[in-house]
Amino acid sequence: MRYKTVTMPENRHIALVAHDNKKADLLAWSQRHKPQLASHHLYATGTTGEILNQQLGLAVHPLMSGPLGGDQQIGAMIAESRLDTLIFFWDPLSSQPHDPDVKALLRLAAVWNIPVACNASSADFIISSPLFNQPFERLVPDYEAYQRERALSADT
């Protein structure tokens, strides 16, 4: 696979997601970091988005509930280079009916090389990084080059 460089903008597009048992943790983390989050474009799934909108007073773009398609919406945003960071407080100790969706979302974040935080400590590291509030270049798969190579090999 070939790679290309894309520049993440200074004002990031950030998804905030939490499983039911982690919503309070994400809200507390978001309240602590409200000044840092305020200058970014925020997205959240279902109930998490409602809670953050009501409690934070920040503009959080709502998506569907995770099990009803919100995880796939975020995955699509990642694949389309419309999301720069994923803050996903997932619950590793509870069974999730939409576990395959969660795994697919985390896989897409890894494939497209975006920063991912799965708990408050990793989220603290991301938001406190000097790279967080400035443009940042990252490598992503060059899918167009891959398609061209496949088309050329099919023609031969």
Keywords:
single chain, 156 residues, alpha/beta, Rossmann fold, five-stranded parallel β-sheet, two-stranded antiparallel ribbon, 7 helices
Itemize the secondary structure elements and their pairings.
Layout: E1 3-8, E2 13-18, H1 23-32, H2 34-37, E3 41-45, H3 46-56, E4 60-63, H4 70-79, E5 85-89, H5 99-111, E6 116-117, H6 120-128, E7 136-141, H7 143-155
Parallel strand pairs: 2-3, 2-5, 3-4, 5-6
Antiparallel strand pairs: 1-7
Helix pairs in contact: 1-3, 4-5
Family: Belongs to the methylglyoxal synthase family.
Active site: 71 (proton donor/acceptor)
Function: Catalyzes the formation of methylglyoxal from dihydroxyacetone phosphate.
3D architecture notes:
Belongs to the methylglyoxal synthase family. Its EC number is 4.2.3.3. It catalyses: dihydroxyacetone phosphate = methylglyoxal + phosphate. The protein has 156 residues and is an alpha/beta fold. The chain has a single domain, classed as 3-Layer(aba) Sandwich (Rossmann fold). It is built from seven helices and seven strands, in the order ββααβαβαβαβαβα. A five-stranded parallel β-sheet has the order 4-3-2-5-6. The chain has a two-stranded antiparallel sheet with strand order 1-7. α1 runs parallel beside α3. The protein is globular. The chain starts with a strand and ends with a helix.
A few lines on this structure:
It is an enzyme of class 4 (lyase). The protein has 156 residues and is of the alpha/beta class.
Q: Flag low-confidence runs.
A: none
Largest sheet report: 5 strands, parallel
Strand order of the largest sheet: 4-3-2-5-6
Please report the distance between the alpha carbons of the first and last residues: 20 Å
- The tally of beta strands, per DSSP, is 7
Active site: 71 (proton donor/acceptor)
Protein name: Methylglyoxal synthase
Enzyme class: lyase
Function: Catalyzes the formation of methylglyoxal from dihydroxyacetone phosphate.
